[in-house]
Amino acid sequence: MNGETLYSIGDLARRTGLTVKAIRFYADTGVVPPTTRSPAGYRRYGADSLARLELVRTLRELGIDLATIRRVVDREVSLTDVAATHAEALDVQIRVLRQRRAVLMAVARRGSTLQEMDLMHKLARLSADERRYLIDDFLGAVFDGLHDHPAFAAVTRSLTPELPDDPETEQIEAWVRLAELSQDHDFRTTLHGMAQDLAADRAPDDATGLPRVLVEAVRAQVTPALEAGVEPDSPAAEPIVSALAAHYARILGHPASHDPRALYRRLAARLERMNDARRDQYLSLLAVVNGWPAPESLAPALTWSAAALRTRMPQR
């Protein structure tokens, strides 16, 4: 055939790494038909058949079905379109595998029961709309009765997990754990109490809302004392406690000297309610899901502050 080099099935097998049986199968199904036959009737293949066979092998290794491959090699569909379609399909498979891996890793670490594993698997498979509904329901319960509060929108945004379209395994696992936590009725009740406390502590003439001001004041005032090893009941803690009490009095909208005993008791109770390990856990998981920096736990500062206040609570 015009001097074209022709190959036997054995030659193709050696050049492509495919078995003779596989090449015969591709020939019989018309995917890679022989270029011609020898006088004795043996199949012979040209360079075009070799290239076609290499393409078939590559596409099969990428998981593309034989019917689609035949349409590609017969130029019924473009390779670009097929590649794009299968890449999208692989993206879906990868996401599913990541979800399964995250659930299995969580089960292995936590020693979960069959029921817990089933719940984690269901949570991992939720659609974006289903995840949004679950979190909206959780935050709606936490901030029930506070939707008109001026800080409501900003606070709920700051507490909303947004799992990306292509999450890492750690983000999927964090989402599952966060979703489980959001269904904890006692945790919902505790957070609702915190929200009500903070809303009640807003001065009557304050139009902005101050749910985070107390937390940030505690962090700013107490963290240096913790780092310096100041004990809550030591004289060195006195100015810190006074500063916290004065700050809290300003939030309430009345002088710190108004009723020191009641002020100390109320502030200590607020800080003790806020010092729930599940709150820290929620914020840590939220940071993983949203790709935020890991938050610093406020628990040591809250514990120190409450102890310092209780120690100095004025007696009757």
What's the short version?
With 316 residues, this protein is an all-alpha fold. The chain has 15 helices and two strands. 66% of the residues lie in helices and 1% in strands.
Give an overview in words.
The model is unreliable at 207-211 (pLDDT under 50). The chain has a two-stranded antiparallel sheet. It contains 15 helices and two strands. It has 316 residues and is an all-alpha fold. The longest helix has 32 residues, at 79-110. A hairpin with a 5-residue loop joins strand 1 and strand 2 (43-44).
Topology, number of strands: 2
Element-level helix/strand string: HHEEHHHHHHHHHHHHH
**Helical content class:** 55-70%
Output the structural class.
mainly alpha
Write the topology of this structure:
Elements: H1 9-16, H2 20-28, E1 36-37, E2 43-44, H3 47-61, H4 66-73, H5 79-110, H6 114-124, H7 128-142, H8 152-158, H9 169-182, H10 185-200, H11 213-228, H12 238-252, H13 260-274, H14 277-290, H15 299-311
Antiparallel strand pairs: 1-2
Helix pairs in contact: 3-4, 5-6, 5-9, 6-9, 7-10, 9-14, 11-12, 11-15, 13-15
Keywords summarizing the entry:
single chain, 316 residues, mainly alpha, 15 helices, rod-shaped
